[in-house]
Design brief:
single chain; alpha/beta; 6-stranded mixed β-sheet; two-stranded antiparallel sheet; 23% helix; flat
Length: 183
């Protein structure tokens, strides 16, 4: 029926055999083995990514891989620019395809993975899923963010700093010189 493997995930797997056998993989990989993801991290801490993968065929006889990833990433907070730990959990549903026509025929619930040969680079596919799950602008929760608010604010500079309220913006717009006023 279904095989269970644990420990370190293999980098390459035979997607066709794994889907035929309905294989399941449970294991881990190191962030140091994911160079594109490491470029997004604020610290070079070598965390572990835990993966739970299930290969098989769906009701339409498509070769699929469903998976779940869990890790902790060290990212830079875009508000205070300090390092922050972001727990990340993401699930995905992939279908193995050979060409664009097969990819176009997939339902929206499945993402295509193009097979150029029978074996796939599992780390590359899982790294893609982690990259797609990264927040666009990671920030600490506002109560723990260490943003420095100690500098004095000059009211004349508030416009350039974007610190005006809605009413103040309206007053500023009314007060501003209108270049079309002479017309």
């Amino acid at each position: 029926m279904s095989q269970r493997h644990t420990t370190l995930l293999p980098r390459k797997v035979d997607a066709l055999k794994f889907t035929q056998r309905e294989a399941a993989l449970q294991g881990e990989m190191h962030l140091r083995d994911l160079p594109r993801l490491q470029q997004c991290l604020s610290d070079n801490i070598d965390s572990i990514v835990f993966a739970d993968l299930q290969f098989g065929k769906d009701e339409e006889n498509r070769r699929v891989m469903n998976g779940f990833l869990k890790t902790e990433l060290s990212l830079q907070c875009n508000r205070c620019l300090q390092s922050m730990t972001l727990p990340m959990e993401t699930g995905f549903h992939l279908a193995f395809v050979w060409n664009d026509e097969q990819a176009a025929a997939l339902p929206k619930s499945l993402e295509p993975v193009f097979l150029h040969e029978e074996s796939i680079d599992l780390y590359e596919i899982l790294e893609d899923e982690l990259l797609l799950s990264l927040p666009l602008s990671p920030v600490h929760a506002s109560d723990i963010c260490q943003i420095d608010q100690s500098f004095p604010v000059n009211p004349e500079n508030e416009v350039s700093l974007g610190l005006l309220s809605g009413k103040q913006i309206k007053k500023e717009a009314e007060r501003a010189d209108n270049p079309f006023e002479v017309l």
